[in-house]
Fold this protein.
Amino acid sequence: MMSGAAKAKVFLVDDHPLVREMLKSLIEQQPDMIACGEAEDAAKALKGIAADKPHVAIIDLSLKESSGLELIKQIKHRYPQVSQIVLSMHDEKLYAERAIRAGARGYVMKRESTKQIVAAIRTVQGGKLWLSEQLADAFARRFVGAEPETGSPLESLSDRELEVFNLLGQGLQTRQVASSLNVSIKTIQAYCARIKHKLQLSSAAELLREAVRWHESVTSGRASG
């Protein structure tokens, strides 16, 4: 907890207004925190963080036509003083390590209690890393070589490949994915080829079906969470 009258300024990035409102209400109830701003996408988030100068940013990984992981990297590069926390329905086993490597200081699943969110904010504001007990144990076991590599095939994808996979799952066509990521169509086609190989998919149609199926499973979890 911050001493004296100073409060931790928290910036919220989520494309669901109700989630932002819930987080804002939760933060405003804390004596040592204040919600200083909010945004629904990466572009608005970067502008808002530049203007509001928060201590902590809470970021959802699934943003409209943009990548939460890429946003984390940009914030880390431009505003390294901002401690970032991911709040997401995405499985921490698949995304938490990626988020930490990108620059996040904490990862909280949306199914966790509000107490966990508050604790995570205070922890990263205090300069420490926030992970669930299960994830911290998995990291420790992997560090000492006791954790076998038996996760989801999606874990074999690079951050960019997973980003392309996610955008395809949202129903974007190749041209739209290329435009969203500001790269050429040929580059996206190359990513798709690597994704198909890593996931052992035989065609573009099968890749699209798998991406849509995975994205629907994630968004249904968000709706019920």
Q: What stands out?
A: The domain at 8-142 is CATH 3.40.50.2300 (Rossmann fold). The chain has a mean pLDDT of 87.
